[in-house]
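Form P-L/3: holo structure prediction, ligand flavin-adenine dinucleotide.
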Amino acid sequence: MSAQHEARTATAHHVVILGAGYAGMSAAIQLAARVRRHEDVQVTLVNAQERFAERLRLHMTGTGQRLSELSIPELLEGTGVRFVRGWVTAVDAAAKTVRMDDRHTLRYDTLVYGLGSVADTESVPGAAEYAHTFDSVHDAEVLAARLARLAGGTVMVAGSGLTGIETAAEIAERYPESHVVLLGRQEPGVTMNPKARGYLHAALDRLGVTVRSGVEVAEVLPDAVKLTGGERVDADVVVWTGGTRISPLAAAAGLTVDERGRIVTDTALRSVSHPEVYAVGDAAAIRQGYGLMHGTCQGGMPTGVHAAVSIARTLKGKQPKAFRFGYYHAPVSLGRDDAVVQFTHPDNSPRRICLTGRRAAWYKETVTASPWPTYGRMKKMPASGVFWPRGGRFTRIGEAR
Ligand SMILES: Cc1cc2nc3c(=O)[nH]c(=O)nc-3n(C[C@H](O)[C@H](O)[C@H](O)COP(=O)(O)OP(=O)(O)OC[C@H]3O[C@@H](n4cnc5c(N)ncnc54)[C@H](O)[C@@H]3O)c2cc1C
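OUTPUT (holo model):
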């Protein structure tokens, strides 16, 4: 390193982005493109793996389907972003440092926290020990290996939200000799309109998935689950899709978090307790006029872009703008050739219009495949990443429906 470069690094404004998921990648690429000509700004992206984990496709990995290897360092080539591979073990919000598992520390002036979420296996005894999750590509591959050895038997998907539905359908399609049970508190597709919900149930029925709703798992055992009320349901494999939890790092750092451990943000996505920290994606508790956003890729990518735009504005001495986002769809795959897409109002309530069948499967695949090319476009044209539905009157605080 030249003396000149060292001096520049010492005086530079360091932006450290934690997590290269859908939100963190959006923040890194967008910010790099906006500060390209500012030699006094250094952007560092930290992630556990070099491979981009396409979480939207982990139920495919979990059923033994091979996905493209998407390399984060390759995507970052030419952007000026420094990539650090490693596991973050602590954030010291007072000292403005991040501790890595190899014990080295990274100093920051501005932090973007995008460490995502993992399956909530802590709230039910036995889930962490005996249930499979989609927390990482590795976890999905462990499930795939288990299913490949199964040859029949019962696979229980515990959690009847959209991830649980996609998982149950995918497993039933790939392993028709297995009996798949989708079990949860809510009826699958409860947030959809009657037509979409009816289609969903018919598809699950066609795939041979047994649906049990209105039940709650009290304990996961090595070969069964126990429901509240005491009933035991045998299962050779349990996949846990019953809600998510957030890494305890943010709370341990003293950042203000909500009851689920998400960083509470102001309207510009800055931590309310530490404004030099931006929170994005699943790890952020972001309030809109309709309530708190829930973790999705469709909302996560805009949060990353908005944080980057805000940081770039702040570096120029401007004020960041308020973040606004409205939902527009809930696409759900039902195996590889079928899907249902519920179009939504900005507050995520269902519209009358939905897509089903092959057209819906094509739509879902197009949406799922879109983040990586979007990052590629943003490298050259950052403005191409700033288009998302702002939600109109639904997202104006005080004007929610
Ligand atoms: C099977 C499945 C299907 C889904 N389908 C959909 C869908 O169709 N549509 C939709 O909108 N959403 C879907 N979701 C939800 C969506 O994947 C998440 O909302 C989204 O990934 C959140 O993005 P994020 O950037 O906040 O976090 P993530 O994408 O989870 O990224 C977080 C990153 O941080 C890294 N990381 C975490 N902790 C550390 C640490 N301590 N040190 C270093 N690195 C760390 C992780 O390895 C990861 O790369 C699905 C989720 C699953 C599991």
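COMMENT: The chain has a mean pLDDT of 94.
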